[in-house]
C-alpha cells in the first residue's frame, strides 16, 4: 500500500487469490502442522496418498499386478519382482509402489514423485 494521503493504493493491481505464509518450524512434521493451522486446512486420513505426485490426478481405484501395468512403464525389473501391487495414476499413467523404508511411495519415472 502507498503512504499517500487518502485511500490506500494497492501496489499490485491484480488481485492475488492466495495467501503467503512464512514457515518457521524446522521439521517436516512441524512445518506441515504449522501450514495446516495457518490456512485452516484439515487432513482426512482416507485422502492421504490418493493423488499422483506428478500431476495431482487420482490413482486408479485398485492396485495392479506387475503384469497389468501400462506397456510404457519404466519400473525397474527388480522392483517389479519385489512388489505384488502397483498404483497407477488415472491421468498420466505414472506407476507408484509402496516403499519398504518408512511410510511412502516411489515412482519408476524420473521426476518429483520419488520417495514420497
Ligand atoms: Zn499423474
Description:
The protein is α+β, with helices and mostly antiparallel strands. It has a domain at 2-39. It is 16% helix and 8% strand. It contains two helices and three strands. The chain has helices at residues 28-39, 77-82, and strands at 87-88, 95-98, 105-107. Strands 1-2-3 form a three-stranded antiparallel beta sheet, with no helix packed on it. Strand 2 and strand 3 form a beta hairpin. The protein is elongated. Mean pLDDT is 78; it is low at 110-116. The structure holds zinc ion (ZN). Zinc ion is lined by residues 52, 54-55, 57, 89, 91-92, 94.
Summarize the structure.
The protein is α+β, with helices and mostly antiparallel strands. It contains two helices and three strands; from the N terminus they run ααβββ. The longest helix has 12 residues, at 28-39.
- Give the N-to-C terminal Cα separation: 40 Å
Low-confidence segments, ≥5 residues, pLDDT <50? 110-116
In DSSP terms (H or I, runs of 4 or more residues), the helix count works out at 2
Give the CA-based shape. Answer: elongated
As a percent range, the share of strand residues is: 5-15%
**How would you state the average pLDDT, rounded?**
78
Structural key phrases:
disordered C terminus; 3-stranded antiparallel beta sheet; alpha+beta; 3 strands; binds zinc ion; 116 residues
Question: What is the element layout, followed by pairings?
Answer:
Elements: H1 28-39, H2 77-82, E1 87-88, E2 95-98, E3 105-107
Antiparallel strand pairs: 1-2, 2-3
Bound molecules: zinc ion.
